[in-house]
Structure formats: structure tokens, C-alpha cells
Amino acid sequence: MKIKLRISPYAYPILFFAGAILVGAFCLHCNFSLRHNSISWIDSLFTATSATCVTGLAVVDTGTYFSTIGQIIILCLIQVGGLGIMTITSLIFYLWSKKISLTDKIAVGQGLLHDPTFSLGNFLINIVTMAFTIEALGALFLYILSPQKVGLFSSLFHSISAFCNAGFSLYENSLMDFKDNLGVNLVIMILIILGGLGFSVLQELIIYFKHKINHKRYVLSWHTNVVLSTTAYLILFGSLFIFLGEYVFGPGKETPLGESILVSLFQAVTCRTAGFNTVDIAYMTNVSLCIMILLMFIGGGPGSCAGGIKVTTFRVLWAYIKGQIFIKGKQAVIGRFAAKEEDLNKAVILFVFSCILISIGILILNITEGGEAPHIYSRGIFLSIAFEVVSAFGTVGLSTGLTPHLTFVGKCVVICLMFIGRLGPIIFLSLIQHIQEEPRFAWPKENILIG
């Protein structure tokens, strides 16, 4: 008798991402990927995970440690991780046989669209075409705006890294040499924002502008409006608070106004998911770091290259809190609609699970990264660890300088956080629920005092 092993569709992205990371780690450990150095297995695994999960945290300098082949491997991992393993795999099968299994349709639909009922083939082709076009244009503009410092390969590398929200840079100090270059800053920020909106939002925006050009009326969906408005609010208020923390009440009061505004805006954009930096994060004030932790935790749009709990989750929870306090109906109302109860429950579960995961990560790193030192001698390490953990979970890649000094256990913890953060806690929760049997009984209910 043959026994068929049934794999949940929610397991496919996990398996494919893990497979890509292992293959990438093996390639990065080979001599052809390195210049004149050797790299440990844990560091190659860390780098491969960071690249595939489009995080950007680095234990070694990408530009000087890896050869051109190694940098190309990292770039391929970023591209694969940005578009999503399931997207590329499904596209290959689609182009090969023009057929797609229901399992793959469910897996890709859950990961990329808020509505899984879609034309998969056309959508996948649009994704790849859209991504490659945006990355090519970004590389072209980077090359034109700074030809003396950014070569063709470097322009392409940073364009793909920015659009995929990876944050990997070929420069040891990231983009600090370009902090006052308006053109480079704008190109990188636009790429980051586009990569963090979500592919379904990008596709709808293209349709919207086509209608505008043809003078036809087109109304953006509620989902797209929520993503766009929340993204704009987060960038605006994030920039404002970073500006206040660094250049009004902080040490940068003598900085020219134009440069301070540009730096504040760039950091508010990049810390939501990308990981590039134009200033040294370690020298930023605690106020700015706390604001950046919040932005990293929220992240970008669903089905995008970004991590975090996603802007829609944050908006639903914020609307629910307002509804509980100020609105009689107590619904999570956003614009012209109220969120469904099942979506609200999912947002609450995601928020709680993410907070628990981050808390565990912070606790473990506080033990492994100098836990034996008394508090009086380790002041500041807690914020650095919290920043590192949220950056890994949100697949952001910013660091106050802790990453290269992590212990073996610390690196393993960060690897797990990046992996879970890229795939999203929801997919792991969905997998657990999918393999469980439906209960055939109900527990009696009783009141309990709360608060």
C-alpha cells in the first residue's frame, strides 16, 4: 500500500526559502566567492539568510570580503528573495506548461495578494516585468547621477538591493558618502518605497495612471488607499520625529537645513524596511532610535519586499483602538469601510505573536551578548540589542554596530528572526493551524475580571 505524503501549501514557501538559503550559504563558502579570505559556515549561512530574506545585516563587509562572483551570488539571492521563491518557481512552471497547480496558486496568492482569486500567469509575468523594469531604470539613474563614484555593476547592485528592500551595499559605510547627494538619495528612496508597497498595489497604480492618461475614471481599491495613505503618514511623521531628535534637540543643530531634512527623510524611508543608511546609526540619539524601532516593527505593505507586521496590520489595530475609545460602534473603521472581524483577529494574533517573538529574541541576546556584565557596566546594550532584534525581524538590516560582534548563538537567533520575519509569522501560524484537526467540542464559557 502506497502512502502519500501531503504537504500543506503553507509549507512550500518555507521549504523553498530554506533551500535557497542553504544553496546560497554553500556557494558563499566556496573559494570562488571570496577574495583572499576564508569564511566560517555560520557567517556564510548568516549572509545567505540576510540576502535571501532581503534584510541586509552583515557580519562581514560585502564589498571587500566577497569577490565579484560572491557579490553576484548575493545579488541573485536578493532578487530571488525579493520576488519570492514561490513566484519564480510558479512562473517557471507556468511558462513551461501553461498550467499551474491549485497548491501553487494558493501559496502564491496568500503571499502576494490580498485577494487570492486572480489570473496567476498574467500576474506573475507582470511582477517580473515590473520588477526588472524598475530596477533597470533605477540603475540607469544611479549611474547618471553619480558616475564618478558608482559604476555600472555597483549601480545595478544598489538598485536591485534598494527595490528588493535588502539594504546590502558594496560600500563599507553603506551610503554615507552620498548623504548630501539629492539625486542618489531620491532614486534610492523611490526604489525602496516602490518595493515596499506590494506588487498588487504597484499593478493597480499602473492601471490607475493608464486610465488617467486616457482621461478615464478609475477608483483605487480600499486596500491600495490604506497602504498608500499609511505609508505616507509613517514617512512624514517618522521624518519629523527623526529631524527633531537629531537636528532640533539633538547634536546636529549646526547641520545645514537642507542636509538635515534630506537625512531625516532618507532614514525614515529606509528604516521601514530597506537598511541603507546615510549617517552612522550608532551616533544617533535614543529618541531617533526608538522612532526607528517602531517604523521597523511596522514595515511595509503586504505582498511586498518589506518585512514587519505590515502597514495594513498597524492601520487596522490603530483603527480598532480608536474605535474602542472614541466610536460607539467599536469597529475598526478605515475610510469608507470597516475591517472584517476575521481580519481584525488576524491582526491581533500577528501583533501579539510578533511581540512575543521579539521579546524572546531580546532576552536571548541579552544573555549571549554580555549577559554576565552588571547593568552599570552595560548601559546602552539593551537598546542596541532591541534595535538589532527588531531590525532582523523586520528584515530591515540597520544596526548600531552589534552585528559583526555577535556570538555564535546570537547569530543563530538573528538568522531565525530574519527567516521568520521575511516569510511572515502568519504563514507559520497558518501552517500550524492547517495541520491541526478541527475540535469536535466546545468549552463552557465564564466571565473573568479584566484590568
The total of beta strands comes to: 2
The global form is globular
* Overall mean confidence score, pLDDT: 85
Q: What is the end-to-end distance?
A: 57 Å
Largest sheet: 2 strands, antiparallel
Radius of gyration over alpha carbons? 22 Å
Point out poorly predicted stretches: none
In order across it, which strands form the biggest sheet?
1-2
Amount of beta strand: under 5%
| Assembly form of the protein | single chain
Instruction: Tell me the number of structural domains.
Output: 1
User: Helix fraction?
Assistant: 55-70%
What is the number of helices?
18
Order of helices and strands: HHHHHHHHHHHHHHEEHHHH
Concise synopsis of the structure shown:
The termini are far apart. It is globular, with a radius of gyration of 22 Å. The chain is built from 18 helices and 2 strands.
Key traits:
single chain, 451 residues, mainly alpha, two-stranded antiparallel ribbon, 1% strand, globular
Overall description:
This protein is mainly alpha-helical and 451 residues long. It has one domain (11-429). Helices cover 63% and strands 1% of the residues. The protein contains 18 helices and two strands. It has helices at residues 11-29, 41-52, 62-65, 68-83, 85-97, 102-112, 120-145, 152-163, 182-197, 199-213, 222-248, 257-270, 286-298, 311-326, 341-368, 381-393, 408-423, 425-435; strands at residues 333-334, 337-338. A two-stranded antiparallel sheet has the order 1-2. A hairpin with a 2-residue loop joins strand 1 and strand 2. Helix 13 packs parallel to helix 16 and helix 15 crosses helix 16. The longest helix has 28 residues, at 341-368. It is globular.
